[in-house]
Design brief:
The complex is a heterotrimer of chains A (634), B (102) and C (183). By secondary structure, chain B is mainly α. Chain B has helices at residues 6-26, 30-55, 59-87. Chain B has a single domain (6-91), classed as Helix Hairpins. Chain C contains six helices and no strands. Classes of the chains: A mainly alpha (634), B mainly alpha (102), C mainly alpha (183).
């Protein structure tokens, strides 16, 4: 079984290495096939591992497999090891399953790009990193996967490196993620200092005894982990990189910035919930961050005009839900939403990709409109994704989101506040998602649409269409895995790894869906009133509240604040250092050293007369001096 | 041990060594430099054999024989070089060989 | 008995003094003679007096080797070469580099003084009394045993050095001959 897990881990790495070695000796289409095949191998292996785990007793579903001792420093031993347990298998299935669909889609989307092979190699590297992250059996290897995921995300965001904006977005993503990596590393140092080990079993087993509850160290460790989680999952205030990351190719956005990488923060909290529970303050902070993020992102999504950015803010908002779930201790609900979100958000991104593909790269929704008649299949896929996102029953998003809301109701006073946030978020979600749907697919066709669509009237090649279809089906039925009041398959499955802290009562599981569906329908109605038909209400509103509109269009000024507080002072410091330290001291000393040596050398070279007897004399003088030294130190 | 002590032999050896060294440093003819080198080597041999006697250990004599081997080899190569120089019509004067000048 | 020992001691002293004077005188002669031929002859005398000193130090085999190999074979080669090149005179003190000469002499004197000082510092305790020797000390048998036993590697390396020297000598001669043909 662990062999299958290792195969699942290394199969994408093999593909990436093979592509790097082969270079242009492999054809472009074969490169895409190789990568999708390798991810399919991962998925099949993960499914096999799942089947094997299912045949075991729930309490014994945990297997560690160590290849070698990777790092040995004093008493600290860190192995290159993977952990196979319900949580990791769950993530493996999501990553490799959705990953396979998206990679297959990408072979169609990227066809004809100049550097298609590089793209596929990066994608395989990303899948490997993500699998390493979720499969690793200790915190250090998890951090390695964590960092590699950030690296491959960086590589993919600025894949189109000719675009300045793409390069800037990649750098931004990498820097924010590196900040998160650093805080995780700091947390790990504290764990090493207190526990002296990094493998999950030891750390979680002795965490309470060695670290203690609610003291400074526990809080610092949890804060470090939370910093990493928030950065990776684009939660306020570390979210600014995600909208910019939409500069990457659309399948990248689907895979990394919707389905897998950004949910790693939720996985981290679920995985290390023992450490978080030692510091409930931090766990609650995570929930509050999630609540704030889901509202902030929902509001900003209302006014954005780039189709991918809207979906990106939606992603932040949905991950906010997952953070709320994880923060109140409903890990199963969070992971469930992670899974359904992977389905419908990947679906939305890929459908948006079809739109962008059909419109020759156009991403501005103001230049779209009336696409419903031209792209019927795409419209249906987008509609399914939107309905699932808005939480309309019986689609996937309904079950998972309402499970989260029901769970928050059991979370005490904070939970009530979060519940209110969540319901408000549901309203916003329905509103912005249907705004997108209406603006893109209904109404009058813009000139741009007429210009491009008639020249190239298609909905993409088969390789792009079938993954969308599969995801659409999953977005419809994926939520039935777990039905409130009925069965909780995800909760039960994850129970041995992360036992939930909250247990919603029956009335909660009944009340929250009804309320949220009503709210969602209200949101849809408002969206219809505003954008569903020809109306000047949106412009009138914008004219009436100009300040709010500008603030939202500027994404609440997060970028401006960071620019003023961090970027510009750092740049100024760098310039000053360059002038005061680098040029006179560093470069100056190097130049002075070189000049001095050269002068010395020419003087020494002058003594080299070529006269053998002089050389011999020097040797004799040296000998006499040495003997003198020996006599005097005798 | 009959006769003077080992110290006396060592002083003789030292004087011989200094003489040879002076010869190497002063003379310009490569032939005589070689001869002076032989003096130095033999001074070393004398010290070795004196120490062998001092410690009643024949190892020093073995060492001296090895030095003789080295000396013989050095003479062969050195004389070969001198003959080669003379055939190339190079002046037999160590001061004339200044190709090592930096 | 005591008388005989005393007579032996006196005899050894006499031989030593004679050999030492011959040694130093011939050493100076090697350095100071203008003619290389004379210098070489002086070196033969020097080697001979060394052999006498070796005998006094009970190193019979080394003394024999000294006379046969050194004074015999090596010096004959020297003389051949000198004869071949013609004994060109070389005034020992005539030089363009007078400073070097003075410095050389000073250095050598300093070096000598230092070594003598070291010997004097040790002369009273370490060097005053020599160890008793057995009958076989310095005999060919003992040296042979040492050479083929403890010092086998040194022995083999010495033979290798000799071989390389011989080959080097041949090559130095041969190259020049080929060069002459090319000219």
């Amino acid at each position: 079984m662990t062999a299958a897990a290792w195969l699942a881990l290394f199969s994408p790495l093999g593909a990436a290495v093979a592509l790097a070695v082969l270079g242009d000796r492999i054809s472009r289409s074969r490169a895409g096939l190789l990568v999708s095949g390798s991810v399919l191998v991962s998925f099949v292996s993960s499914a096999y591992v799942l089947a094997r785990l299912l045949s075991e007793h729930p309490e014994q579903r945990s297997h560690v497999s160590t290849l070698w001792t990777w790092l040995s420093a004093g008493d600290l031993q860190v192995g290159f090891e993977i952990l196979v347990d319900p949580l990791s298998v769950f993530m493996m299935l999501v990553v490799s399953g959705v990953g396979f669909l998206i990679v297959s889609y990408a072979t169609g989307y990227m066809r004809g790009d100049d550097e298609e092979r590089r793209y596929h190699a990066y994608k395989a590297l990303f899948v490997f990193s993500m699998l390493l992250l979720v499969q690793s059996g200790n915190l250090l290897l998890l951090l390695v996967g964590w960092g590699m995921v950030g690296l491959s995300s960086y590589l993919l965001i600025n894949f189109w490196h000719q675009r300045r904006s793409a390069v800037a977005a990649g750098k931004k993503a990498f820097i924010v993620n590196a900040f998160g990596d650093a805080t995780v590393a700091l947390g790990l140092f504290l764990v090493i200092q207190r526990v002296g080990a990094l493998d999950f079993a030891t750390v979680f087993g002795s965490a309470e005894a060695e670290i203690g509850r609610s003291n400074t160290v526990a809080v610092l460790i949890a804060l470090g982990l939370l910093g990493g989680a928030a950065a990776k999952s684009a939660q306020v205030p570390l979210h600014t990189w995600l909208p910019d990351a939409m500069e990457g190719p659309t399948p990248v956005s689907a895979l990394i910035h919707a389905a897998t990488m950004v949910t790693a923060g939720v996985y981290l909290i679920a995985r290390t919930h023992v450490l978080f529970e030692l510091a409930p303050v931090v766990l609650h902070t995570a929930a509050v961050l999630g609540g704030v993020t889901l509202l902030v992102a929902g509001v900003i999504a209302l006014v954005q005009t780039d189709i991918k950015r809207v979906i990106a803010y939606s992603t932040m908002s949905q991950i906010g839900y997952m953070f709320v779930a994880a923060g109140v201790g409903a890990y199963g609900a969070g992971m469930f939403h992670l899974m359904t979100h992977a389905f419908f958000k990947a679906l939305l991104f890929m459908a948006a990709g079809l739109v962008i593909h059909a419109l020759a790269g156009e991403q501005d929704i103001r230049r779209m409109g009336g696409l419903g008649r031209e792209l019927p299949r795409t419209t249906r896929a987008f509609l399914i994704g939107t309905l699932a996102l808005a939480g309309v029953p019986p689609l996937a998003g309904f079950f998972s989101k309402d499970e989260i809301l029901a769970n928050t109701l059991d979370g005490g006073p904070l939970g009530i506040v979060l519940f209110v946030f969540g319901v408000a978020g549901a309203f916003l979600t329905a509103m912005y998602s249907f705004r997108l749907l209406f603006v893109v697919f209904r109404g009058k066709q813009s000139e741009h649409v007429q210009h491009h669509l008639h020249r190239e009237p298609n909905e993409g090649p088969l390789s792009m269409v079938w993954p969308v279809g599969v995801l659409a089906v999953l977005a419809v039925v994926g939520g039935l895995v777990s039905v409130p009041g009925g069965w909780h398959a995800v909760d039960t499955w994850l129970e041995p790894v992360s036992r939930p802290l909250v247990h919603p009562a029956g009335w909660m599981e009944a009340f929250s869906p009804i309320l949220s569906v009503c709210v969602a329908l209200l949101g849809i109605a408002v969206a219809w009133r505003l954008w569903g038909q020809a109306s000047d209400l949106p412009t009138a509103l914008a004219r009436r509240y100009p300040l709010a509109t500008v603030a939202l269009e500027r994404k609440l000024y997060f970028d401006e604040v960071y620019d003023a507080l961090l970027v510009r002072p750092a740049a100024r410091l760098a310039v000053t250092l360059e002038r005061v330290v680098e040029r006179p001291i560093v470069a100056g000393s190097a130049r002075a050293t070189a000049g001095g040596i050269r002068g010395l050398a020419s003087r020494v070279a002058a003594t080299q007369s070529g006269l053998l007897r002089v050389y011999a004399l020097v040797v004799a003088v040296g000998l006499a001096t040495l003997v003198l030294v020996f006599i005097s130190v005798r | 041990m009959l006769g003077p002590t080992v110290a006396a032999y060592l002083v003789l050896s030292a004087i011989l060594f200094a003489t040879g060294a002076a010869g190497v440093l002063i003379r310009r003819s490569p032939l005589i430099v070689l001869l002076a080198l032989e003096l130095m080597l033999n001074a070393g041999n004398l010290a070795l054999i004196a120490f062998a006697r001092q410690h009643a250990d024949s190892g020093g004599q073995v060492f001296a024989l090895a030095v003789m081997v080295v000396a013989a080899t050095e003479v062969v190569v050195g004389l070969g070089l001198i003959v080669a120089m003379s055939r190339k019509k190079v002046e037999l004067d160590v001061d004339a060989l200044t190709e090592l000048e930096g | 008995m005591i008388l005989a020992s005393l007579a032996g001691d006196v005899l050894v002293w006499v031989v030593w003094v004679v050999a030492a004077i011959a040694l130093l005188a011939s050493g100076f002669a090697v350095v100071l003679f203008r003619n290389p031929f004379h210098s070489a002859l002086a070196l033969i005398l020097n080697l001979g007096s060394l052999a006498v000193l070796y005998l006094l130090l009970s190193a019979e085999f080394v003394a024999a080797a000294q006379v046969l190999v050194y004074a015999g074979a090596v010096m004959v080669m020297f003389l051949f070469v000198i004869a071949y090149l013609g004994g060109r005179a070389d005034a020992p003190w005539a030089s363009s580099q007078a400073a070097v000469r003075v410095a050389a002499v000073v250095t050598c004197v300093v070096l000598l003084a230092e070594v003598v000082l070291v010997i004097a510092l040790d002369a009273r305790d370490g060097l005053s009394s020599a160890a008793e020797i057995t009958e076989g000390f310095g005999s060919p048998r003992e040296l042979g045993r040492l050479f083929l036993g403890d010092n086998l590697l040194a022995f083999e390396v010495s033979s290798l050095v000799l071989l390389i020297g011989a080959v080097g000598g041949v090559i130095l001669g041969a190259t020049v001959r080929r060069g002459e043909v090319e000219e």
